[in-house]
Prior knowledge:
This protein has two domains: 23-148, Oxidized Rhodanese, domain 1, CATH 3.40.250.10; 169-282, Oxidized Rhodanese, domain 1, CATH 3.40.250. It has helices at residues 2-20, 52-58, 69-73, 94-101, 116-127, 186-192, 203-210, 228-235, 250-261, and strands at 45-48, 60-61, 65-66, 108-112, 133-138, 147-148, 179-182, 194-195, 199-200, 242-246, 267-272, 281-282. Helices cover 29% and strands 14% of the residues. The longest helix is centred in the N-terminal third of the chain and has 19 residues, at 2-20. The relative contact order is 0.11.
Amino acid sequence: MLKKITLAALAVLFAASLSFAAPALTGKEAITMENIDGYLDAPARFIDLRNYADLMNGGAIAGFEVVPFFQYLEGRGLVRNNGWNFSAADVKDAALLQNVFGPKDQAIVLICASGTRAGYVKAALDSLGYAKVYNAGGFKDYKGARKILGDGAYAGLVELPAAIDMGNIDAYLGRPGAKYVDLRNAGDVYKAGAIDGFVNVSFFEYLEGNALKRNTGWDFTAADILSKDILQNVFGNKKREIYLMCASGTRAGYVKAALESLGYSKVYNIGGIKDYKGKNKVLGDETFTLALK
Length: 293
């Protein structure tokens, strides 16, 4: 008798679990950030199109996988020819898109930061025959219970060491938003070579006399600044990383002090080209002489 009651109870529990299981999506549901929690257990793929750094910084919804639009889909599977207005010509590689998003009959719920990328990718997938793709909107509007908090600071970059110099600069080339400046004369760059990725802003041929005036040799003082505007026009946002080099590090140290006096907080004097032994050197021509008129 007890066994029969136990089996009957299990049958009831099983039936109850089935009644609470999320129903299959049909493609006609209106899924938004306000009601998305009610669909998160449905048989579907839940895809966040933001960059990885955005998730670590701003947070995410538990259960979503990441397929970053800017860091992966754009330029590979899709090319935007008219902004965010999708056209069939935007599909660069249909096979890649199908490999990423899977069978065309499965439900796919897309989100991004505001819903723009999600809407664009939905239009692309619709054009390929996907029938159950949802743009659920932007993470900024999510107030549900399954939010994973970000740290509010992560930018997706490798943390910088205390010292950056010619011995380790190769590991920090190409950082997003950073500016790499070679302060030697233009002729010296062509003659002695340079590090690939650095732009030439000649100290003696441009900065000195226009933006800066050395009143006490290489010992910077606030009185040395002739034009704050020129310096900020050349070096840009005060919060960006700026890597300075010259022949020996002297000019780089002086300009670093000048920029820091203006509020730049991420300026690095990496030293002189004479000490560089890395793999990114652009060779110069020792016979070259540049005559500036």
